[in-house]
Design goal:
heterodimer, A: about 350 residues, ABC transporter involved in vitamin B12 uptake, BtuC, 14 helices, B: about 325 residues, mainly alpha, two-stranded antiparallel ribbon, 2 strands, about 0% strand, globular
Chain lengths: ~350, ~325
């Protein structure tokens, strides 16, 4: 877990780092448990076909989680992820299918559209001083309606060999979707951003304590715009990923992104009020969430009950996370005393 | 009269009346009694949806579960009435009780865990929707109590009977927040949590009450919607999220909590409904309506922000005797 911990001694930070791997370890246990239980009940759960499907969905959900996390670490949220995705999908479909433009150029334009649409929200938030909740809620409606309006709700059948190979081809083994690699690369890049760049550290600092960060000379405005840009870029990527494996896409893609994006963030152990991020946790949370869904589907649980399961998973996750935090808060306080003693010696 | 003019929603109402007159003059179908009935019927439903959100906003919280609660209520009523042949009154009552219970669960979880209402209601709202889809198997119940349908679709000339219900709910909400101890508690808690708790008032009670009332109103809205469209579908409430925020916010309720305007919500619902109807009459794509709603929310919050800044300036001028 990357957490803005101020400028304490390295020893205190090292102790905190080891203790903070809690969510990731717990998730690995949960995933092993899920795979074992579902695998024993029904062998087809661990078939390469099913694992491929889980990877496909989990890759998209992991990228959505990272997109949401870019703002959550700053104590914000992005309710317009899906609508930005809708804009990107319509644009992708129009350029690739209707206008027959080459894939690289299309991808660049789609990425730019995601970034611009997202940064506009950031500018509005900065200029108005309104909360990100209401700004992104309003834009979710405006962008979503706008995308459907401009695209005339057209369905696009994406027949691009490179893109389809990415979404439906295989990588190394028949069980691994190339999108998994894309998600892992995203995870690696965001890890570097939040651990090794000043933008990442400033984001975390603003999320931990915005007033203190501003007082220390952090230009909160430009960092916020950067976070919106990152979130928009990742939303665009998720849109491309979804277009790569769906038979046909339209501007309603993204209407169901809100829940998985928050499940990945919360289950992954990211604090909703900001200040920390666990990249590994987000990736693992997406895998667990989609394994559970796939398992329930294989158990013949009607897809109509899946919503209930999804909601309950999120509810249990937030409550468990809260309990863990309370426990750790007590632990941290007692450990802080020890750490102070150690540094004195 | 002076107070009426100074109300936040007064310019909004004026704009709508102007819009109505212009639209009535330009198009033939907008000013007809039937069209006005359609506008007011939608507005009646939107008012209750908005009030369901407003009571939670007043407590400084928010609920993403209004739509989910409504879906669950609708399906329970349809299920009990069509499959188990419960009497209409009892089935509707069961739906309302379930909605209230769902709201209570939201409030209880939020108050106990001190989590944000956003994440809790995102989870429970999805779960409630899941229950609705699970019970109904995604199908709609076409057999709906005829009394509910008659009430929901009844009208005298341009005035829908549903509007009477909405007016009653609005007045009750206004009076409850203004005069009932629990209403004052909700507003106090929304205005300043710490001060409320330091005054020895129960913060749990404020949160639980607000969410419980919200659940009841989501149930009422579900019944109204069911009667209006004549079937009980699990898709009810699926697209209520934006409306539930647009109505109170455009009506002048602060997102930060501590204040609420029930009549503002009623006016905002009429405005929204008139605008979307005007767009439809003008043959604009319905997706433009969704877009317009988002932009209107943004305009409303920006306007209220400007208003607050102006108020602060005048307050400063008064306090220090500066000239404006």
């Amino acid at each position: 877990m990357t957490r803005f911990a101020g400028f304490g001694s390295n020893r205190v930070r090292a102790v905190a780092l080891v203790a903070d791997q809690g969510p990731a370890v717990g998730l690995i246990v949960l995933i092993i448990l899920t795979w074992t239980v579902f695998g024993v009940i029904n062998g087809s759960f661990v078939s390469s076909f099913n694992l491929f499907g889980i990877g496909q969905l989990a890759a998209r959900d992991a990228v959505l989680g990272l997109a949401q996390a870019a703002l959550v670490v700053m104590g914000r949220m992005n309710l317009a992820l899906g609508s930005v995705g809708a804009i990107c999908v319509s644009l992708l479909g129009y350029m690739l299918v209707s206008a027959d433009i080459s894939l690289p150029l299309t991808l660049v334009v789609v990425a730019a559209a995601g970034v611009i649409a997202s940064v506009i929200m950031g500018v509005v938030e900065l200029r108005s001083g309104l909360s990100s909740f209401i700004v992104t809620l309003a834009f979710a409606s405006a962008y979503g309606g706008g995308a459907l309006l401009v695209s005339r709700s057209a369905n696009f059948q994406i027949n691009n060999s490179a893109l389809n190979a990415l979404g439906s081809g295989t990588f190394l083994s028949a069980a691994i979707c190339p999108l998994v690699v894309v998600a892992l690369i995203c995870g690696g890049v965001t890890w570097v951003i939040y651990n090794r760049t000043s933008f990442g550290w400033k984001s975390l600092a603003i999320g931990a304590n915005e007033r203190a960060a501003r007082a220390s000379g952090v230009n909160a405005g430009s960092v916020l715009l950067g976070a919106y840009a990152l979130s928009g870029l990742l939303a665009a990527l998720a849109a491309v990923m979804e277009s790569s494996y769906e038979l046909s896409v339209n501007a309603s893609v993204g209407s169901d992104w809100l829940l998985p994006s928050f499940v990945a963030v919360v289950l992954g152990g990211v604090t909703l009020t900001g200040g920390d991020i666990t990249i590994g946790g987000i990736l693992l949370a997406a895998v667990f969430f989609d394994s559970l869904q796939s398992g329930l589907t294989i158990l013949n649980v009607s897809s109509y009950w899946l919503n209930l399961a999804e909601g309950l998973v999120l509810l249990v996750a937030v409550i468990a996370d809260q309990a863990r935090r309370n426990r750790r808060g007590r632990l941290r306080r007692s450990r802080a005393v020890v750490a102070v003693e150690v540094t004195r010696v | 009269m002076n107070g009426l003019l100074r109300a936040r929603w007064a310019p909004l109402l004026a704009a709508t009346i102007v819009l109505g007159i212009v639209m009535g003059a330009v198009t033939r179908s907008f000013g007809t009694a039937f069209n006005v009935y359609v506008i007011l019927q939608t507005a009646a439903l939107d008012t209750v949806i908005g009030l369901s959100q407003m009571v939670v906003l007043a407590a400084g919280d928010l609920s993403l579960a209004v739509g989910g609660l409504a879906a669950m209520c609708t399906i329970i009523i349809g299920y009990l009435f069509q499959v188990h042949h419960w009497p209409a009154g009892l089935a509707v009552l069961a739906g309302l009780v379930l909605g209230t219970a769902g709201g209570f669960v939201n409030g209880a979880i939020i108050a106990r865990t001190r989590l944000s209402g956003f994440i809790v209601t995102l989870a429970t709202g999805t779960a409630f929707t899941g229950i609705a889809y699970g019970i109904s198997g995604s199908a709609a119940y076409s057999d709906v109590p005829s009394s509910v349908v008659k009430l929901s679709q009844g009208r005298t000339s341009f005035f829908p009977y549903l509007m009477v219900l909405s007016l009653a709910v609005t007045v009750l909400m206004y009076a409850g927040l203004r005069w009932l101890p629990d209403g004052r508690l909700i507003l106090a808690f929304g205005g300043n949590r710490d001060a409320t708790m330091l005054s020895g008032l129960s913060s749990r009670r404020a949160q639980v009450t607000a969410h419980t009332v919200s659940g009841l109103l989501a149930g009422v809205a579900a019944v109204m919607y069911m009667g209006t469209i004549g079937t009980a579908t699990p898709a009810a409430g699926g697209d209520w999220l934006i409306v539930s925020f647009a109505v109170p916010i455009i009506g002048g309720t602060a997102l930060a909590g501590g204040e609420a305007s029930a009549f503002g919500a009623l006016v905002a619902a009429v405005v929204l409904s008139a605008i979307s109807d005007a767009l439809i009459v003008l043959n604009v794509n319905t997706n433009a309506v969704e877009m317009a709603e988002g932009l209107l929310i943004l305009a409303a919050v920006l306007a209220s922000r400007l208003g607050e800044a102006a108020q602060r300036r005048t307050a400063l001028h008064r306090a220090f005797g500066w000239r404006a």
